Amino acid sequence: MKIPNRQKFTKNHKRNLITKETRKTGLVLGNYGIKATETGYLKMKQMERIKGDLVKKLKDNMDIYFNFYPLFGLTNKGTARMGAGKGEVSEWYVLVKKGSIVVEFIKSRMTAGAMQKVIRYSANKWPIKVRMTQIKQGLYEKKI
User: How far apart are CA 19 and CA 43, in angstroms?
Assistant: First the structure.
């Protein structure tokens, strides 16, 4: 994954974990998706591991679209005396809110049962709880 090239402020305060997503709650591009059921942080290493596992399991059966991008920097000061500043950005993370669609699967050539197995396998790698969502003929979203 890429890191942000340029930001106005790279050293941010930590975000509020109580909020709930109101905008990205439905599937837009694909038939299947992974929805977050709790709020939490995803670090860049965790994102890479999840992406690699999904690509390995799905192979060429469908395209994967990730709805997140690491925008916030996590700083690490190290060992220094007081008053030396905040520290440099050591890694990047993204805030995933409860109810947001995190991953969408496009052009699916798999059944719902096979897709559930893949998502259950990858759900163990996530630092937050996730579940699978499915859209039926573009009309409504079904919880699985």
Answer: 19
Please, are residues 32 and 102 in contact by the beta-carbon 8 Å criterion? no
What is the total count of domains within the chain? 1
Which residues in the chain land under pLDDT 50? 138
- Rounded distance between C-alpha atoms, residue 32 and residue 63, angstroms: 11
pLDDT, position 134: 83
Listing from the earlier edge strand, what are the strands of the sheet with 32-36?
Answer: 63-66, 101-106, 32-36, 130-136, 140-143
Q: Is residue 37 part of a domain?
A: yes
Pairing mode, strands 88-96 and 101-106: unpaired
Q: What is the pTM of this model?
A: 0.77
Beta strands in the chain (DSSP E): 32-36, 40-43, 63-66, 72-76, 88-96, 101-106, 130-136, 140-143
Identify the CATH number of the domain in which residue 39 sits. Answer: 3.90.1170.10
Helices (H), 59-125: 112-123
Q: Cβ(87)–Cβ(76) under 8 Å?
A: yes
Residues β-bridged to residue 41: 95
Domain region containing 134: 32-78+86-139
